[in-house]
Amino acid sequence: MNLVRFKKDTDLFNDAFKSVFHSPFFSERTFDTSNILPKVRITEDKDNFYINLEMPGVVKEDMKISLENNILSISGTKKQTKKMEETNLIMNEIYFGEFSRSFTVTDEIRKDNIEAEFKDGVLNIVLPKVEEAKPVIKEIAVK
């Protein structure tokens, strides 16, 4: 017969709750939040290059897009909207702060015609190709 110390139900619940968050799955990790990089997708068709950046939680007024010396720069700040003073933080994978991404723009791009639209947390940038960079498709008649 084993002797087991009896615990109240509330202690069992608290111990189980604490053990979950002290498991290896919830191990404490440190991240460098000074280097937040929005995820990016770059595609092209015959007329344009497209850059799509995921920036959930960012508002349009807190971002800046510039082109200088053939470098397209997207920067801004993701601000924390709610104070968390009254809660105990258990786990956090949502980061706030400054971010930036830069892309080299070649002479294949019509720099004066670059357009950007921000919708539903995604920044969509269209970089039109110059005429010489577009592929020339010539149909050849079969005799």
Secondary structure layout:
Layout: H1 9-21, E1 40-44, E2 48-54, E3 63-68, E4 71-78, E5 97-104, E6 115-119, E7 122-128
Antiparallel strand pairs: 1-2, 2-7, 3-4, 4-5, 6-7
Descriptive account of the structure:
By secondary structure, the protein is mainly β. The protein has a single domain (31-133), classed as Sandwich (Immunoglobulin-like). Helices cover 9% and strands 32% of the residues. It contains one helix and seven strands. The protein has one helix at 9-21; strands spanning 40-44, 48-54, 63-68, 71-78, 97-104, 115-119, 122-128. The strands form two sheets. Strands 1-2-7-6 form a four-stranded antiparallel sheet, with no helix packed on it. It has a three-stranded antiparallel sheet with strand order 3-4-5, with no helix packed on it.
Compact description:
With 143 residues, the chain is mainly β. It contains 1 helix and 7 strands, in the order αβββββββ.
Number of strands: 7
Which class do the helix and strand fractions yield? Answer: mainly beta
Strand order of the largest sheet: 1-2-7-6
Radius of gyration: 26 Å
Q: Return the string of H and E elements.
A: HEEEEEEE
Estimate percent helicity.
under 10%
Calculate the terminal CA-CA distance, rounded to whole Å: 98 Å
Output the CATH class name: Mainly Beta
Residue-averaged pLDDT: 78
- Structurally, the number of domains stands at 1
Outline the biggest β-sheet. Answer: 4 strands, antiparallel
